[in-house]
Amino acid sequence: MTAPARPATATPSPITGGLAEGVWCLSTPNSSYVLAVAADGRLVQLHWGARLSPGDGPRLGEAAAVPPYQLPLESQEPLPVDGGLRWGPPSLQIAFPGGVRSLELKLVDDVVAAEPGAHRLDLVLADTHFPLQVVLHHRVREDSDVIERWVTLRHTADSGEPLRIIRADSGNWLIPQLGDYRYSVVSGGYYAEGQLRRGRLPDGEYRLTSRTGITAHHANPWMMIDDGTATEAHGPVWSVALAWSGSWRLTAHRQFQGRAAVSAGFGHDGLSWPLDPGAELTTPPILGLYTDGGFGAASRGWHQHARTHVLPHPGEDRPVLYNSWEAVEFDVDETAQLDLARRAADLGVELFVIDDGWFSTRTSDRSGLGDWWPNPGRFPNGLAAVARHVHQLGMRFGVWVEPEMVNPDSELYRAHPDWVLHFPHRRRDELRRQLVLNFARADVRAWALDWLDRLVTDNHVDHLKWDMNRGFSQAGWPERGDAQDWLWIDHTRGVYQVIDQLRARHPALRIESCAGGGGRVDYGILARTDQVWPSDNTDAYQRQSIQHGLSQLYPAIVMSAWVTDKPYSHDEQRNQYAYHVAMAGVLGIGGNLNAWTDGRHEQARRNIGLYKQIRAIVQHGAQHRLGDPPGAGLTAIQYLLGDETVVFVYRPRAEVTPDPDTLPLAGLDPDATYTDPDTGTVASGRTLMSAGLPVCSRLPAGDWASAVIRLNRTG
C-alpha cells in the first residue's frame, strides 16, 4: 500500500518582517542583516553579523544616539544623506532646484519578491517635498553569505528642472561595536598591484579611491574589518566590495563613540550628474560578507560567490595559454607566429594568443591603435590563415585588443578627432602615445562592436585579451555641455554593454580583462569576463605577494599567471619555482620559445602535464593560505575539491634558521585517511591538520625551493 503523500513544506523566506512591524531581517546561510525604522522615522541598521533565530530582529532594540545632544547615530543609516543634523561622510548628496542641498527622506513602501535562488527586498523612500524617489535594493541568495545592495534614484516629475547628483554611493555598511577596528586592504601601483595592508582604522575618515576612470593599480574597491585579533582561520571578519570598473570611492568612518561604517560607490569629488524629469540612475552593487572563520573563510566565501553568481562560465577549466609578446614584442608576422604556435602545441598549450602589433601600421606604440585590421605586409593571408593553423594544431586562437584607445597617428583619429575625451581650448595629453575613446558615445560603441564582431567572426577568434593602458585625462565631452560628467559613469557602462553584446553574438568567446596589468580587476568586470591579468610583473617571487593580495577577494580561476624569461631563464630551480607560483592560478607561458633549450622545453612540457592533472582542484577548489606570508619564510597554498587536495609549498630563500619540518593543513575530514600518490604515505586528516604534512623532505636545497604535493582521500 502506498503511503499518502506528505504536504510540501514551504521553504522559509530569508527575508522576514515588513513595513507594518518596522523591522526587516535578511538572512544568508550563516549571517543576518537587520534594518528597522527608528523612533524619528529614519531607516537604520541594527545588526550585521551572525545569523539570528526567527523573531530575533524585532528584539534588537532601538537605534543608537550620540551625546551630548543624543542625536541619532548617522553612520547607522544604510544610506546617510546630506541633510539635517548629520556631519559625517554622506552616501547621498543631491542639489535640488533653488540651491537646496538638504535631503529629507521618508519610507513609503517595501516590496519583497522571490527570484530564482534568491530573495529581494526593495525599500522605497521619497523626499518630503522634491520629486525624488530613492529605492534601497537588497538581495540574499540561498547558497551564499554575500548580501547584495544597490540604489536607484528616480526623478519622479514629468517636467521641470533636473536634480543634480553630487554623490551616489551604493550603500553604507555599519560594522558592529568592537573593542578596536582593523582594516585590511590592498594597495600598491603598476608592477606592484595587490599588496595586502593591515592597520588600525584611524579615527575619522579613511578613504580609498580611484580617479583614473578605471579600477586602478594603486587600490582595489574592497575593505575587510575585524577587531584586530582575527587570523586566517579564526575570528569575525566583515568585508565590503564594490562591483564597479570605473572611478570609485570607499570611505571608512570611525566615530569616537565606538562605531565604524564603510560606504562606497562610483564617482569622485568634483563631478555631478543632472537627473532629468522621468530619468533614473541605478548604482553598481555593493556587496557585503560576514564570517566568523577568519580571513581565510572570508576569502572562500567570496571565491564561492564569484564562481556561483558572478563569472559567466565558472564551471569550465581555464586553458593553458601561450602569449607571444615576450618572444617578438612588436616584430609580429605570420611566419614567426606559426613557428611559435607549433612549439607551443608541442608543449601541451591549449590557447595561442597573438599580442600587440598584428594590426594596421602597428610596428611600435606610436601608431595604429584604432585601425583594427591585420597588417597586410605581416599577414598577407590574413589572421584567418593563422587561426586555421592554430586550430589544426589542437589549440584555441586569441588576439590582443585595446578597443578604448586610439593613436593620434591613425586613420580613426584623423576621421573622428571628436571621439576622444577632450575639452575645448585645452591640450590633449597623450600617454603611451594614445588617447582615450569616449565609450559613453553611442557612435563609438557601435563602431567598436562592429569591428570586434567582424574580427571574431572572420578570423574564428576564441579569446580576446582586452587591454586598457591609461587613465582618463581632459575627460570632457563638449557636445553634452553641463551633462558631460556622465561620461565617467557611462564610459564604463558602455564598455560593459559592448562586451555583453559581443558575447551574446559569440557565446563561445572568452575574454581576459587587462589594464596595463592589474588596473581593471573587480566584480563588475568579472561579471562579463572570464579571467584577469593581475600585473605586468611576471617575476615569480614578486607575483607571490601580488597573487596573495588578489586571493583575498578573487578566486584562482580568474588569476592569469605566466612563466616568462624574466629574470631567471638560466636557473632551472628558479624556473621550477616560477611554474609552481603560476600553477596556483591559471597557468600560462610567455617566454621566447625559440630561445629555449631542450631542457626548458621538457620542463615546460612536464609542468603543463602536471597542471592539467590538478587544475580542476586549483580553479574550482576551496583555498587555504598556510604558513608564513609570501617572502617571509615557508609559505603554502592548499586547494581542496571533493576527495582531492593539492598543496603548493614555497621557500624562496634558504634562511639560517631552520624551516618547520611539517605544515599543518586545513579543511580535511579528520576521520578520513589521505594518501600521497607520489610517496605512498598514508595519514589521517586529523594528523595532517594537527601534526602536519612533512614538507622539508620534499623541498630541494637552496633558494627558490618549491614543491607540489597531492593527497587523495582513500578511506
Automatic annotation (TrEMBL):
Ranges for domain Glycosyl hydrolase family 36 N-terminal: 41-275
The family assignment reads: Belongs to the glycosyl hydrolase.
Calcium as a keyword? no
Quote the protein name from its UniProt record. Answer: Alpha-galactosidase
Keywords per UniProt: Glycosidase, Hydrolase
Keyword Hydrolase assigned to the entry: answer is: yes
The chain positions of domain Glycosyl hydrolase family 36 C-terminal read: 642-711
Source taxonomy: Bacteria, Bacillati, Actinomycetota, Actinomycetes, Micromonosporales
Signal peptide positions are none
The lineage's top-level taxon is: Bacteria
Question: EC number(s) per UniProt?
Answer: 3.2.1.22
